[in-house]
Amino acid sequence: MSDTVQSLEDLGSAVGVEAEDSAPVHVQKLDAHGRAYATGKRKDAVARVWVKPGSGKIIVNKKEYNVYFGRPVLQMVMKQPIIAADRDGQFDIVCTVAGGGLSGQAGAIRHGIAKALTYYEPELRGVLKKGGFLTRDSRVVERKKYGRAKARRSFQFSKR
């Protein structure tokens, strides 16, 4: 205990921690077919997403994405991470999605595409993280409580 630490650098060397190695290193994760796989979730919907280089074709449950999602808003939500990363038309994306409604499914695919893009190109992580596409939206339906009509709604009060 006779050694006194005078600075933060001395403290790091005394403990054995190097400042350069503390940041996590993100590496490319591909399967045997050269695709990046990720799972996206939103509400009750779960999407499995595969990304590979191609002409920009997007398939959702064996249908074109604009056929599966008829509303333009849902198509836009689904394509947000591709446009934010400036990779429109460069990747073929195949998705299978189950559970929830169309809005939750579009959000799940958006989350899965963003994660899969970071697995394919780790340098895109900063752009997608700043856009909020890598964060799982954890809002789900509140459960019904006993003694209540719904999650928060009480039964009608009657004085007599």
Q: Mean pLDDT across all residues, rounded? A: 90
In the CATH scheme, what's the topology name of the domain at 25-131? Ribosomal Protein S5, domain 2
Structural category is alpha+beta
What would you report as the Rg, rounded to the nearest angstrom? 23 Å
Largest sheet, strands/sense/barrel? 5 strands, mixed
Shape: flat
Beta-strand fraction estimate: 15-25%
Can you identify the CATH class of the domain at 25-131? Alpha Beta
Give, in order, the helices and strands. HEEEEHHEHH
Strand order of the biggest β-sheet: 1-2-5-3-4
Helix content: 25-40%
Q: What distance separates the N and C termini?
A: 79 Å
By DSSP, the count of extended strands is: 5
Count of alpha and pi helical runs? 5
CATH architecture designation of the domain at 25-131 = 2-Layer Sandwich
Protein topology:
Layout: H1 8-15, E1 36-42, E2 45-53, E3 58-60, E4 63-64, H2 65-68, H3 72-84, E5 91-98, H4 102-120, H5 125-131
Helix pairs in contact: 3-4
Keywords:
160 residues, alpha+beta, Ribosomal Protein S5, domain 2, 5-stranded mixed sheet, 5 strands, 32% helix
How would you describe this structure to a colleague?
By secondary structure, the chain is an alpha+beta fold. It has helices at residues 8-15, 65-68, 72-84, 102-120, 125-131; strands at 36-42, 45-53, 58-60, 63-64, 91-98. The chain has a domain at 25-131: 2-Layer Sandwich (Ribosomal Protein S5, domain 2). The longest helix has 19 residues, at 102-120.
